[in-house]
Amino acid sequence: MYQYILMNNTFLWLLLIVNSLGTVYGYMWYGSQLSVTPAIFLPFVPDSPTASLFFCFVLAFFLIGKNSPYIEALAVTTLFKYGIWAVVMNLLTLFVEGEIGWQGYMLMVSHGAMALQGLLYAPFYRMKLRHICFAAIWTLHNDIIDYVFGMMPVYSSLSDYMNAIGYFTFWLSILSIAIAYYISEKRMSLTKV
After folding, report:
1. Fewest CB within a 10 Å sphere: which of 31, 131, 134, 145?
2. Which domain holds residue 8?
3. For residue 25, what pLDDT is reported?
4. Looking at the domain assignment, is residue 163 inside a domain?
């Protein structure tokens, strides 16, 4: 039943509109940081909006009855990673500062939803190992850009914790890649039955 709802055209359009608006808002949120980012790093700085942009493409392909395994692998890996990452960073900000305001809570809900929707659509992905390897390279390369070249999202109150955040982010990337691999293997084993 839930699979029928998830792939219903009206529901897909609704999700596409919501995710498109969230993507635009996300890129606007990064505006000040992007304005001082060297051009070579621009694709790797706005992590969450790029993840939701990947998912917008996945939804658009679903609407025309097609799959795009490379984009699906990028979407599931980055949606889960940056969805969980943003929730944890906002919780850490709440712990450090004692408050995060309504925007912080809104970001926690929206990013938690990002992680969830990436997983909910897993039964419809057609990705294989090569697609996951591509997404893994993108994801780990992004960590290097963020934490070696210093292009991570700016959370000024968390600047004292950058080494720990970088370490956490690396292992969150590994977990996200492992989840994508598990989804792929589970689907492959079901198609062999």
Report:
1. 31
2. 1-187
3. 94
4. yes
